[in-house]
Structures are given as structure tokens and as C-alpha cells.
Predict the 3D structure of the following.
Amino acid sequence: MNKGRPTYQELKKRLAIAEPIVEALKHLEVDAVVGKEKLTFLLLKEVGEELQHSEAGFRAMFELPGVGMVQADTPAFRFTKVNRTFYEMLGYSPEELMNKTFISLTYLRDRQRAMKEFARVLRGKTDSWSHEKRCVRKDGSVVWVAVSGTALRDDTGQVVRVMAMVTDLTARKQAEQILRDKALLKKGKPMRPRKPARNPRFKKR
């Protein structure tokens, strides 16, 4: 049997492994599966294996619904592939995102931390990372996301590409803010009026 082409049964088995992980991500039930870091490893490992075995299998894994998936080159971390969930999340077309990088879409005040994470990956300090940050949509509005990524290295240990899962956390963040505001009201403390978050340097074109 040609190991480079998984059978239908093998692909179906891999998809079966990934589906409960995706469902947990959609409902933010990370602890119900295996924990955040393990979650990243399992799903991205499945996608990475399909990338090596077959293009068709890779597409099937990459386009799993409910969670954003991206692939980017190095060292610029420019997007080379994005799935529908991700580009709809940020309001760009897939073609527009091919001219963007992880950093360029990151909210200005969150960029330094993101750059430190990427530097650790390039230096071989880690093969994976997970963090929450804000991204800027095409219209300038801000969306909170959870990013969990992994590096794919060649035989010499050099990073050739990175893959990441991106989950929209905006609704959860808004709910948390409402709870904080209610707590302040109970304590008799006034709430400061809030304007919709926008990137400090964003200019609408």
C-alpha cells in the first residue's frame, strides 16, 4: 500500500478524532477534552500529517467548520492559506489575506507579545504557542481571539511554516465585561462609558 496516500478509512478515522476537539473549541469546552496545549497538539498534528500524506486529506482537515485555521510562511509569518471561518471572522477575502501577516492583523498594543512568541519559535525555544489577543478586522473594529499554533520544521530543524487555530472570543469577553460592570454597580461604583475598541492607528480606506 502506498503510504503517501491514506485510504478513505484512515482519513475518516482522523476526521473522527478531530471532530470532538472542534466541537469543544466551538463551545470553549477545552477542559472537557484534554486541556488547551494538548488540544492544539492533537488537532494540528492531524492537519500536519495530512499535509505530508495528501493534498486532498489536508484540505479536508483544514476546512473543518467552527474554528479558524491558518498557515503562514517564515520568517515574515505571511499567510499562505486560510479557511473560511478565519476570513469571515476578520471580514477580509482570502486573496486580501495573502498580503497580510500575523503581526499586521494584530491590535497595536498586543503586537509586542505576539512578536516575542514568534521569536521563541524561530529560535527553537518552542514548537507551539497559545495566547489570547485582539485582531483588527477590515472595517477597523476589534475582535478578541484565542490563537493556538505549532511550527512545522524541516530535517535541519528550521521552521518552514506555522499553522494555527484561531477561535473568536469576542462574545465571551463581552459577557465577562458585563459581569464586571454589574459587580461595580453592586458596589456603588460608577461605570466609565466605553467606546467600541478600534486599532489606535487604523485609518479607514
